[in-house]
Design goal:
The complex is a heterodimer of chains A (about 290) and B (about 240). Chain A has about 290 residues and is mainly α. Chain A has eleven helices and two strands. Chain A has a two-stranded antiparallel sheet. Chain B has helices spanning about 40-45, 70-75, 90-100, 120-125, 140-155, 170-190, 200-205, 225, 230-235; strands at about 1-10, 15-25, 30-35, 55-60, 60-65, 75-80, 160-165, 190-195, 210-215, 215-220. The chains are: A mainly alpha (about 290), B alpha/beta (about 240).
Chain lengths: ~290, ~240
């Protein structure tokens, strides 16, 4: 029983991190109509940049690491949107060309990691050592710190989307890009900001999860696939759906890893995705028919 | 205030708008009519920056062809679409707030004057009071059209372009809309361009009327004179006037 509860707590914490990673992916599609295949590479870059600052070339405190790495991954996203995505937008076959372009970018970014850092796996130390016992259950400080950080970011994101003007303009663009332009919303700036927020969330996920998983130059792909499964299960473009699916699959991952071994995590995830789509073809909270 | 000079737009071989020139005075109500496919909406798309063609378009003496739609909105040109495009999951007042905030260029940009003091006044002017907090998706078509119009007004325009504002409305609603447009013009001094199929509405409310046919200006002038022109009647009704 005690073990089950501890596994559930772990799953819940991973779930909220998965939510952050997946929501960045879904925002990018919902607002900018970009299915970003290079999303996992920003996850990798977030983790490696953190390694540079915390282990490789300096021994900065994690708080500072976040403070430095998140703006970098944000700016990387803005630059990618400006240089690669935006010129494609005027093309009639945008959906397809952006897919190929981001795929190419992923290959480039991953190989850049390979060239700079080499192929050997790296790891980040835990943010905090030791553990705390609460009501008889042992929780590592690391897990608690992860949970608190991810929860704070999630709350900021929700408030940002609901209350701030930039958040409102992002929702407006997601609903109707033409209507948004007509009330004076600078469409391309909103696309760039969205892309930056999205890659920043991917980078944040990379830093948060790097102490749990080893880092490799191609490690981001696993999380791209995971983000894809979460957003499809939750309903593409739906933030609420992503939240539920992130928790569901995070808890499932912890349970499956505990009982069957980590090798079974992805097969079970795909099985769950299959079942969800069987019952709700547009995902848990997806709109039934989206206009193209 | 607005001037089009030899504006042309081709879609492949087809000239949707062909060598169109006209000029609008401040405070004018200007109607555009013509058969389906005459290029009416294309003219709106060219002025508002959704399409780019050849020729020159000036607003207040400043060239605006080649600008992005939001930049043109910032200069004080608003528009609505045939099919209303409100942000459905948001409330009426949220829709307006977006227009109010994004209608002006940047926070440091020049502030535009508006004839209303706050959004509440704007909401009551268009007749949406009591529905401020309703999500737009729950409104009927007429109120959706009013929301879109009010969002456009919230951007503080001096010129507003209305694409079939009366389309799909009941006779009573169309009458109310028309009255509202006339008040916008008379009380707020707004310059209006309206595309409309209802000829009676156009002759009643417009100072001048442009008849478009195959992308070209067939006639332009005082509405009653224009609609009685045999060439116009033939174009719109499709039969030779006896």
């Amino acid at each position: 029983m005690r073990e089950l509860v501890e596994v559930l707590i772990t799953g819940f914490t991973i779930g909220i991190v998965y939510f952050l990673v997946a929501v960045g992916f879904t925002l990018c599609y919902g607002v900018g109509r970009v299915l970003n295949y290079s999303y996992g590479s920003f996850f990798t870059w977030g983790a490696y940049l953190a390694w540079v600052l915390a282990v490789g070339y300096a021994e900065l405190n994690y708080f500072l690491v976040f403070l430095i790495v998140l703006p970098i991954t944000f700016l990387m996203g803005v630059a990618v949107d400006r240089v690669i995505i935006r010129p494609l937008r005027s093309r009639p076959e945008f959906d397809f060309s952006v897919l190929l372009a981001t795929l190419g970018l992923a290959v480039f970014l991953d190989n850049l990691v390979l060239v700079i850092f080499g192929a050997r796996t790296k790891s980040l130390p835990e943010f905090l050592e030791g553990s705390v016992t609460l009501a008889g259950f042992t929780i590592s400080w690391q897990l608690l710190a992860m949970f608190i950080f991810a929860a704070v970011v999630a709350v900021i994101l929700f408030v940002f989307m609901a209350k701030t003007r930039t958040g409102m303009s992002m929702r407006a663009v997601a609903q109707d890009p033409i209507g948004a332009r007509i009330v004076g919303i600078p469409l391309f700036r909103v696309f760039a900001i969205t892309f930056g927020i999205s890659t920043m969330l991917s980078g944040a996920g990379g830093i948060l999860l790097a102490p749990r998983f080893f880092m490799t130059p191609l490690g981001g792909w696993t999380f791209l696939v995971k983000a894809l499964i979460i957003v499809i299960a939750g309903g593409l473009g739906s933030i609420k759906g992503t939240l539920y699916a992130g928790f569901l699959l995070g808890i499932l991952e912890a349970l499956v890893g505990w009982q069957l071994g980590l090798l079974w995590v992805m097969p079970v995830w795909f099985l769950v995705l299959f079942l969800v789509l069987l019952i709700r073809p547009a995902g848990l909270f997806g709109a039934v028919a989206r206009k193209g | 205030m607005l001037r089009l000079e030899h504006v042309t737009k081709h879609f492949g071989e087809l000239a949707a708008v062909n060598d169109l020139s006209f000029e609008l005075e401040e405070g004018e109500v200007f109607g555009i009519a013509g058969p389906n496919g005459a290029g009416k909406t294309t003219v709106f798309n060219l002025i508002s920056g959704f399409l780019h063609g050849s020729g020159r378009i000036y607003f207040d003496g400043r060239r605006i062809d080649g600008l992005q739609p939001h930049q043109i909105t910032h200069l004080g040109v608003a528009r609505t679409f045939q099919i209303p495009q409100p942000f459905n999951s948001m409330t009426v007042v949220q829709n307006l707030r977006i227009g109010e905030y994004y209608g002006v260029a940047g926070r440091s940009g020049p502030k535009k004057d508006a004839p209303w003091n706050d959004l509440a006044e704007l909401i009551s002017f268009v007749g949406l009071e009591g529905k401020e907090a309703r999500p737009v998706s729950t409104l009927k078509l007429y109120d959706k059209k009013l929301t879109v119009l009010a969002s456009a007004l919230a951007t503080k325009p001096r010129l507003i372009m209305l694409d079939e504002a009366l389309g799909g409305l009941s006779a009573v609603e169309a009458e109310q809309s028309l009255e509202l447009l006339q008040r916008l013009n008379r009380e707020w001094g707004l310059t209006i361009i309206m595309i409309e199929h209802l000829m009676s509405a156009l002759t009643r409310s417009c100072d001048r009327l442009l008849i478009l046919n195959n992308g070209e200006a067939l006639r332009i002038g005082e509405p009653r004179t224009v609609v009685e022109d045999p060439v116009v009647i033939e174009c719109l009704v499709g039969v030779k006037h006896a």
